[in-house]
Amino acid sequence: MDILQIPAYAKVNLFLWVKGKRQDGYHEISTLYQSVALHDKVILKKRDKGIEVEILGASLPSGSQNLVHQAASLLHRERGFPGVKIVLHKRIPIAAGLGGGSSDAGATLLGLNYLFGLGLTPLQLARLGARIGSDVPFCILGGTAWGRGRGEQLDPLPPPPTLWLVLVTPLFSLKAQGVYQRWDEMAIEEKRDLSLQEEGIIKALYSGDRKKILENLHNDLEIPAISLCPEIGELKTLLMSCGAERVLLSGSGPTLMGITPTQEKALRIASRLRRIYKRGRVIVTRTLNLL
């Protein structure tokens, strides 16, 4: 086999609790990761030597700044393989809180491991991925998982009942570093204890209680993100007025996800949003059960 194609699934965070800043400069978090059907496509082609990355569908650097290139270079240093050309078809919005770059890196590690028969386990690949980014280990394992530490310490969980999502990504971007810095400035950790809510959503997953899952959705970064960009708050109100059951920021944003009970409802909301909100991208997707 000289060529391999692999999907790189986006992720959302159904729960995100920032517990404080660590001595290494990162933040300690507790988060519920969830894979969704929206995905990029990674095509790997064997070559005699070297690493080449081609990107379709987005204007992104293809050299050492790109996480796909970093993932391939890391695995080449660790295990060695002759060479590869990687063609990345982008569909996941960039710098949007949906883990697109991390997912592409994770898919690259998985694909190269299989294509060249390197023999690494998913856990070994996840440990390598953590050196590239905090979300990469989850994007390698996928499904539903609780993340701790920087997000790289993972515990698999039962998937929720299928949630249909309307993802709305504004044209502007937010840097995660800036959102976390704003969280630090607001001293949010001094104002609440979400341990019961954390416990509640985990119990709801095991029981398959959709109502309880929705009741316990939370993202600590939503308040600082809205503080930095009030348009996010206005967009959340708009999504609710269009009929979403719950609306939550994904990751550090700026993507908001409106949760609906059915695909038909999600498509109606998306259609309405596309007519009245012209400053962003609207995508309908659903949660994935990868068990």
Outline of the structure:
The protein is an alpha+beta fold and 291 residues long. It contains 10 helices and 11 strands.
Give a structural overview:
This protein is α+β, with helices and mostly antiparallel strands and 291 residues long. The protein has 2 domains: 3-156, Ribosomal Protein S5, domain 2 (2-Layer Sandwich), CATH 3.30.230; 164-286, Alpha-Beta Plaits. The chain is 36% helix and 30% strand. The chain has 10 helices and 11 strands. It has helices spanning 67-78, 100-115, 122-129, 136-141, 176-186, 195-207, 210-215, 222-228, 230-241, 263-276, and strands at 3-21, 27-46, 50-56, 83-89, 144-148, 153-156, 164-170, 218-219, 246-249, 256-260, 280-286. The strands form 2 sheets. Strands 1, 2, 3, 4, 5, 6 and 8 form a 7-stranded mixed beta sheet that branches. β9 and β10 form a beta hairpin. It is globular and about 55 Å long. The chain starts with a strand and ends in a 5-residue tail after the last strand. The model has no long low-confidence stretch (mean pLDDT 94).
Query: What is the string of helix and strand elements?
Result: EEEHEHHHEEEHHHEHHEEHE
Classified by CATH, the class of the largest domain is: Alpha Beta
Helical percent range?
25-40%
Shape: globular
Number of helices: 10
- What's the main sheet like? 7 strands, mixed
Which class do the helix and strand fractions yield? Answer: alpha+beta
Beta fraction: 25-35%
CATH topology of the largest domain: Ribosomal Protein S5, domain 2
Query: What value does the Rg take, in angstroms?
Result: 19 Å
Amino- and carboxy-terminal Cα gap: 26 Å
Quickly give the CATH architecture of the largest domain: 2-Layer Sandwich
Mean pLDDT: 94
Uncertain segments:
none
The overall strand count is 11
Total domains? 2
